[in-house]
Design brief:
By secondary structure, the protein is of the alpha+beta class. It has a single domain, classed as Immunoglobulins (Immunoglobulin-like), CATH 2.60.40. The chain is built from three helices and nine strands. The chain is globular and about 40 Å long.
Length: 143
């Protein structure tokens, strides 16, 4: 009985762990953490998953899926100035966030889903929190 209980507990804990996602080569990870300005006339948005546990989330800009993020991963997307709809989709439900970008902007958006949450969360953060989240994580593979 004790072994069955221990086995069930271990399975539950494994289900709460981090979901692995494909990551970019180490050189791309290092390059992105330099926080270089975006190309002329463009803006840069870092989307990062700041927690250590949670499911993999699909991240999209408008209708285009740009990556799958997992705990402690991030991506950088370079976008044209103007309004953009950023979306996340997890195993339960999705969410969206509208952002308006100017040329030269560098913005940070946290994307995550807490264990037991009904949907993923997507929200802009301040540059200090964003840079810390990116530096602590690993660059995800961009699609």
């Amino acid at each position: 009985m004790r072994q069955a209980l221990l086995g069930a507990l271990l399975l539950m804990l494994a289900g709460c762990g981090a979901t692995p996602v494909a990551t970019a080569p180490p050189a791309q990870d290092v390059a992105g953490k330099q926080f270089d300005p975006p190309p002329a006339g463009m803006a840069a948005v870092y989307l990062y998953y700041p927690t250590t546990v949670g499911p993999a989330l699909n991240v999209a800009v408008g209708p285009q899926t740009v990556s799958q993020l997992g705990p402690m991963t991030w991506i950088r997307v370079e976008l044209s100035p103007g309004g953009h709809l950023l979306r996340c989709r997890g195993p339960n439900a999705g969410n969206s966030f509208s952002i308006s970008l100017a040329p030269g902007d560098m913005r940070f958006v946290a994307v995550y889903e807490s264990v037991g949450a009904p949907a993923c969360t997507i929200q802009e953060t301040n540059p200090e929190a964003g840079r810390s989240g990116v530096v602590a994580g690993t660059r995800a593979l961009q699609t």
